[in-house]
Design brief:
The chain is α+β, with helices and mostly antiparallel strands. The chain has 3 helices and 2 strands.
Length: about 70
């Protein structure tokens, strides 16, 4: 848990400096709490793009389970 907190702090420092950070995670609360823009992938393809305002667990799962 301590290592994860250190990583979150480092990410926050970088974004305060105006830098972009790519976060890859399957933990939805983590993604929702940290990201301004979310790209959802399924089987190696992007199935959806959400900004922080429209992002929710339901919307992310809709794109993650999309067929096609």
């Amino acid at each position: 848990m301590g290592a994860k907190l250190e990583i979150y702090e480092l990410i926050n420092q970088l974004t305060k400096q105006g830098k972009s950070v790519i976060v890859i995670s399957s933990e939805l609360p983590e993604i929702l709490g940290m990201c301004d823009r979310i790209l959802v992938m399924r089987n190696g393809s992007i199935t959806g793009e959400l900004n922080a305002k429209e992002a929710s667990q339901e919307n992310i799962m809709k794109y993650a389970t999309l067929e096609g």
